[in-house]
Amino acid sequence: MDYRDKTVWITGASSGIGLELARQLAARGARLVLSARSEATLSELRDSLPGGAEQHWVEPLDLADPEALLPLGEAILQRVGPVDVLVNNGGVSQRSRFIDTDFSVYRRLMEVNYLGSVALTKVVLPGMISRGRGTIVAVSSVAGLVGSQLRSGYSGSKFAVVGFMDCLRAETAKQGIHCLTVCPGSINTAIAINALTADGSAQQSDDEGNLNGLSAEDCARQMVRAMDKGRDQVVIGRGLSGLAPTIKRLLPSLYNRLSARIEYR
Ligand SMILES: NC(=O)c1ccc[n+]([C@@H]2O[C@H](COP(=O)([O-])OP(=O)(O)OC[C@H]3O[C@@H](n4cnc5c(N)ncnc54)[C@H](OP(=O)(O)O)[C@@H]3O)[C@@H](O)[C@H]2O)c1
């Protein structure tokens, strides 16, 4: 895809995969709408990108309040104009057992990881359909394809993203809309540090899987390639974190035995 003069709206652009994707797409000439909660970090990123404040927008938002995103998203569209690509990337993970976890944690994970993306998609899709083109990217997870310990709420929210995207792809196939679902395995970002524990507080420490994971640069590069190739879904990861969906599909009972034995972090 030629990104020059294309407007790409990225959520979760203040850190990790979203931040790196912003850098790579800005280098290819895209106009970016940078969203997350941390406005100061987004402004710093915008100022460091080619084109700076003349070419890119900072539009802070909180995915945990999906209803408020509908009017806020419309107001953002008024400011930035037509959006060619929406990347629903912002999200939060979990590290806690179901039996210990407050119900509020489940609600928060669904709001941030699922309903926030649905709301922003509602905002941009009508314009894309009327123009007969557009790309919706959703960052789910390998945890959106297979379950494992410590992630019952996270996995539920990411499975929901995969299902939502499959339906959206089917409904918009004849309207020129490309729907890409990205399922990363372990990627070395702040995801584990920010992951919610049983009471909803952040874990504030890293996990071995994450530390040994792919870099955010590699992940973003593979995402851009999948966007360029018009792929429907892509798994990005190495080792067990990348192979898990294939093992589950081909040998489901082996996968279930492994996931009962291994507390993957
Ligand atoms: N890293 C991995 O191993 C991995 C694996 C599979 C899937 N993923 C998915 O990849 C996506 C990006 O994660 P990452 O690895 O880059 O983690 P990260 O470094 O923790 O970045 C998460 C991003 O999401 C934003 N965010 C979190 N809560 C938000 C909220 N309530 N409202 C708005 N923005 C919010 C954060 O910005 P603020 O804090 O500034 O709001 C940040 O920009 C997530 O959807 C994650 O589930 C990651």
Automatic annotation (TrEMBL):
Tell me if Electron transport is a UniProt keyword of this record.
no
What are the UniProt keywords, alphabetically? Oxidoreductase
Presence of the UniProt keyword Ion transport in the record:
no
User: Could you tell me the superkingdom of the organism this chain comes from?
Assistant: Bacteria
| GO cellular component terms given for this protein | membrane
Domain Ketoreductase residue range list: 6-188
Q: Which InterPro entries match?
A: KR_dom, NAD(P)-bd_dom_sf, Sc_DH/Rdtase_CS, SDR_fam
Q: Which GO terms describe its molecular function?
A: oxidoreductase activity
Q: Which NCBIfam families match?
A: PRK06181.1 (NF004825)
Family the UniProt entry places it in: Belongs to the short-chain dehydrogenases/reductases (SDR) family.
Please report the name of this protein according to its UniProt entry. Answer: SDR family oxidoreductase
